[in-house]
Amino acid sequence: MRSHQGELEVSRKSLTIERDLWDQTFFSFMTVKKEFLTFKAAVLIQRWYRRYVARLEMRRRCTWRIFQSIEYSCEQDQIKLHNFFSYLMDHFTPSSSKERDFISRMLTEEESYKDTELEKLCDYESVEVLDSYTGPHLSFPLLPDHATALLEAFKQKQQLHAHYVLKLLHETRRHLMQLPNINHVSTCYSEEITIWEGFAVCPLLTLWHLTYFLFSYVFNGDFVDRGKQSVEILIILFAFLLVYPKEVHLNRGNHEDHMVNLRYGFTKEVMQKYKVHGKKILKMLQNVFCWLPLATLIDQKVLIVHGGVSDMTDLELLAKIQRHKFVSVLRGKKRKGKSRHMDSKVINGESPVGVDPPRSSSFPGSCLQPGLASTASRTELSQWVRQTVEEELEKCRRQVGFSETPGDKELTCVSSVTMTESELESCETSESSQGEWKQIVDLLWSDPMPQEGCKMNTVRGGGCYFGPDVTENILQKHSLQLLIRSHECKQEGYEFCHNRKVLTIFSASNYYEIGSNRGAYVKLGPDLVPHFVQYQANKTAHTLTLRQRISRVEESAFRALREKLFAHTSDLICAFKGYDQEETGTITLSDWATAVESVLHLGLPWRMLRPQLVHSTAGGLLEYKSWLDYLAVEQRSKEHIQSSLLETIYRNRSNLETIFRIIDSDHSGLISFEEFHQTWTLFSSHMNIELTDDGISDLARSIDFNKDGNIDFNEFLEAFRLIEHTHCDDKAALPTSDGC
Amino acid sequence: SLPKKERDSQTQTIIADIQKKITDAFEVFDHECNKTVDVREIGTIIRSLGCCPSESELHDLLAEVEEEEPTGYIRLEKFLPMMTKVLMERRYRPIPEDILLRAFEVLDENKCGHLTKEELVKYMTEEGEPFTQEEMEEMLSAAVDPETNTVRYRDYITMMVVDEN
């Protein structure tokens, strides 16, 4: 065999000679020697194959980007929705004490209960374990045998009885209460420390069987909202925590938060598995999550947190906070329902100069008090309201602490209205708790970035982006040598950044889709040098070829992307028309890419993705209306829904589901007429629609299609669509300023 | 047939479009968001833009865009003009299906319509611009018919071409 180097030399020379002739028929050189021909054939095949692989790699990267940007924009939606509700609550004036109760039930900060109160509330004694129950039984204090029994039971797909779940949660809470905000772990005690973040049950089971607790474990948050077995994972984690308290350490992640669980599926899972007692379990869980420690420190040298840090992060301050006060990190500080007095300008019907045309958004807001509609012109008011809603949401965001400037003196209860004295007072006292809250949210939601500095994490809507300089400062300030965090999915399961000072570890393999990524965990010995173990927990993933794996993941990503495109159909048409001045109905593909990015703001390489999204073009031009129709065809469900309204539903669907679950506070899956009435009053006031009480009752009755006296989620969705329809008709009657 | 002014403006538009395309592809690999990519990813970027250079041609292209003192990174500043020229001149066009088929036929000495797994491995790792072990394994996983342990290259090509489209 010739040496590799020699071959390259030969190939270079021959290619230099033949370069101009590559595109000609291969066999134009009939006199060449056989070896030369073989050589050329081989190069041709290799060249072709390498291009094929390169294109696959590009597709893989693009798919990854799609998933990430959609996931983060979902998180952003979640925060926006939350801010919107907070804003609603601040501005809606309940007209009766019942309504006031309803609002405060919906959005009041949950207090952390005293032990006795909690036991009354989540009384597990009254939860009877029937003889017919064949699952595992627990007794406390837990022993290693119990933990092993649980593992076995879950492998057999059994379920732990609610009685034991509640008791387990009680004991877990008692244990966690004794722990400091920052766990201190020493490698002197155990030879090795293993760090995980989020996982499926499989590797977990293998791990325990292999190691028999010679080592310590740190679980870095996000135990739930990952796959369909979050409940089991949590139970096992807590059980092992109680059995081996010195070896198992848990950090809180951003998903250990019931507001996030509502959106991401954990709440649903609990209610599905525990139909009768799920509500108690969820309530108890809220009070367990808030007691989870915020960080772990190994040998005073390695800091482990779920998200990251910010330029304000202060470990000494963090150690002193009463962490259990922050039941949901999304809540921000304590909030009291207050009524607002409208600005005098509004009451007189004036609108401020230079009002922007209404931007389409999921929830155009309104802050009308009943009775105000008659004194002001509705059109002007609604325009002014839309503009101020955007400003208000921005202020709300800052209000709950998503601000850049340190020591922000932004007052609470910000709005464009005058404040009363008592409101000003309460603002000052809660400034310190605002600072504390920011410490926590930064720890749980931040992401590292390559550039220096520290800025608001606008993608997630919470926490910061922190640069290498911020990392360096924190490490130096507290004499640390490494920051280990999770929070972001990485293709190889782990990734270093910031000069190897920050390590991201992600243990849930196949996170977006089978084959999308590997999971990893990291081990630290007394030398504190990280060692990684990677895996991919799915048999199928191993048997697929590279091409098949990529195709599968890609299909998923593009389906999600097409849904998102469809949901923005009207905005897209507006944007496309902007590039089609001569109204030919077509635009260039380059303009298509620019337009799409300007609407979706996903930061994706649209020109690379185009071949998968746009299938037919004539002469480099796209007929955009028919392309959008093609998208719509895919999305149309089997039920008879008017296609023009599908868009609204799709954009709002996940938000509406969240709203439904928030309103359905007993998690029964049904809304009573009473609850519906209260909700509808709320929505109609913010959407600037007048409905009489009778009107709402009639509506409720007509929505209850199956006449069972309750409204389930599908009926709820239908109702929302009807109201949107009425609103759209009204809008159509008013003159609009934009050309769309 | 168009007046020069219009032809020029058309060319300008074409160039602008090409440059946006190149920038998009480049940014996919620009992990630090500072308009640089690792030199080892350049091949992937160039190939995904529609070109099909051989390894030695790639080597030459790289030499054009590398820094005087190689840093391991390639800057968009240097990459963009080079790549624009390559695309405008339509260099390194992809290989037509029938030419590819004839290349396989050259290697198929007995003209039986297939290669054995061993033959393919020999040619791909010992001839031309040899594959790495990883490349070889990846190609085998899709190309070899597990029942006969052979590569029916005609079918293989068809499958790969369909997949690309």
UniProtKB/TrEMBL annotation, chain A:
GO terms for molecular function: calcium ion binding; Hsp70 protein binding; Hsp90 protein binding; iron ion binding; manganese ion binding; mitogen-activated protein kinase kinase kinase binding; protein serine/threonine kinase inhibitor activity; protein serine/threonine phosphatase activity. Its EC number is 3.1.3.16. The lineage of its organism: Eukaryota, Metazoa, Chordata, Craniata, Vertebrata. Gene3D superfamilies: 3.60.21.10, EF-hand (1.10.238.10). Residues 651-686, 691-726 form the EF-hand domain. InterPro entries: Calcineurin-like_PHP, EF-hand-dom_pair, EF_Hand_1_Ca_BS, EF_hand_dom, IQ_motif_EF-hand-BS, Metallo-depent_PP-like, PPP_dom, PPP_phosphatase. Pfam families: EF-hand_7, IQ, Metallophos, PPP5. PROSITE patterns: EF_HAND_1, EF_HAND_2, IQ, SER_THR_PHOSPHATASE. It comes from the Eukaryota. It is an enzyme of class 3 (hydrolase). This is Serine/threonine-protein phosphatase with EF-hands. Keywords: Calcium, Hydrolase, Manganese, Metal-binding, Repeat. Its cofactor is Mn(2+). Belongs to the PPP phosphatase family. Signal peptide: none annotated.
UniProtKB/TrEMBL annotation, chain B:
It comes from the Eukaryota. PANTHER family: DYNEIN REGULATORY COMPLEX PROTEIN 8. GO terms for cellular component: sperm principal piece. Residues 17-52, 95-130 form the EF-hand domain. InterPro entries: EF-hand-dom_pair, EF_hand_dom. One of its GO terms (molecular function) is calcium ion binding. This is EF-hand calcium binding domain 2. It comes from Gopherus evgoodei (Goodes thornscrub tortoise). Coiled coil: none annotated. The keyword Cell division does not apply.
